[in-house]
Amino acid sequence: MTLRPGTQPEGIKRILVVGEINVDLVFQGCQAMPQPGSEVLAEGFRMTPGSSSMICAMGLARLGNPVTFHGKVGADEWGSYCLRALDEAGIGIASIQPDASLQTGLTVSLSTLQDRALVTYPGAMLALRAEDVDDALLAAADHLHVSSYYLQPSLRAGCAELFARAHATGLTTSLDPGFDPQQAWGADLNAMLREVDVFLPNEKELAAISSQSTLLDGLYVLDNGRTLTVVKRGGLGCASLHEGQWLEVPAYPVDALDSTGAGDSFDAGFLHAWLRGMPLRECLRWGNAAGSLSTRGIGGTTMQADAVEAQALIEAGA
Fold it and tell me: How many whole angstroms separate alpha carbon 162 and alpha carbon 129?
């Protein structure tokens, strides 16, 4: 079930996702990662709605949350495809205006049994600025989520101010940093985390951002007294600090086909539970369930779980 913004039952939080929009071309079951001068074969291929922000937004909507999305697209076939996918998922897109001067972004995802690699053409996502999110968008939401902090330099420049505006309007906030293609990482993120309620890095991102070699040390370094940091560990599940103590929840085993976007679906499952005031351990379970179930199909959105499926997996694994 998805809910159009403005039709949610009392107590259900309205979520505004701000971020990148692009198409994913997913090559699943690659024999190996291609090396220069070589060619590999894939077992499957699919074109799907892509980008961390879109996958998270569609996962949230699939779980039954009212979602509005704001981003940039070109006035091209890729952009039309993405907007159509968002609209069909029940996500509000009224603020998105295709721009003929831009090209919609594109990501090629190469997935083996062990790992995945991504090649992204940023396109229109480079044009999105924090100032493009007007007060009316914030006023119509209860929570703001941003993904791919490092892929969106124009948004990144004003992200702290955007989150501060959101808090001043009464919203809670969450951030998934994504990977830094430049691997510079920078100190600006640590400062802006003071405006973030929920921070959702994976293991590699946490290590790079915190400059710590262990997960526990990384969590302690980022513990600023406000931000809840949840580290995604893929097949190992996830971990966080609860009242200063290590809290770990294992992943749920499923017959996985493709891990593309699993971390973004984790974000959706975690936020679905967190915005309903569930205890932290339950929120971690919801994140694990949504992330695991999303790997059953090729691409990040084709097999995202609804709330009934996620709840059944949690209960079966409890």
Answer: 10
Q: How many domains does the chain have?
A: 1
- Amino acid 115: pLDDT: 77
Q: Is 172 helix (H, G, I), strand (E, B) or coil?
A: strand
Which residue range(s) make up the domain with 97? 15-33+41-317
Using alpha carbons, select from 292, 297, 253, 254 the residue that is nearest to residue 270.
292
Starting from the edge strand earliest in sequence, which strands make up the sheet with 44-50, in order?
44-50, 22-28, 105-111, 116-121
Helix (H) or strand (E) holding 67: strand 67-70
Decide: 71 and 55 in contact? Cβ < 8 Å.
no
Residue 239 lies inside a defined structural domain of this protein: yes
Average the pLDDT over 66-85 and give the result: 97
Q: How far is CA 113 from CA 90, 233, 293, 300, in A?
A: 33, 16, 16, 16
In a domain, 2, yes or no: no
High-pLDDT (> 70) share of the chain, %: 97
- Flag whether the pTM goes above 0.85: yes
DSSP assigned state of 287: H
Judged against a pLDDT cut of 80, whether residue 257 lies above it is answered with: no
> What pLDDT, on the 0 to 100 scale, is given for residue 10?
53
Torsions phi, psi for 208 (to 5 deg): -70, -40
Q: Is 273 helix (H, G, I), strand (E, B) or coil?
A: helix
pLDDT, average across residues 58-79 = 97
Domain annotation covers residue 47: yes
8 in a structural domain: no
Is the predicted pLDDT of residue 6 greater than 70, yes or no?
Answer: no
Q: Which helix (H) or strand (E) holds 110?
A: strand 105-111
DSSP string covering 140-170, please? T-SEEEEE-GGG-HHHHHTHHHHHHHHHHHT
pLDDT score at 1: 38
What CATH number does residue 165 fall under? 3.40.1190.20
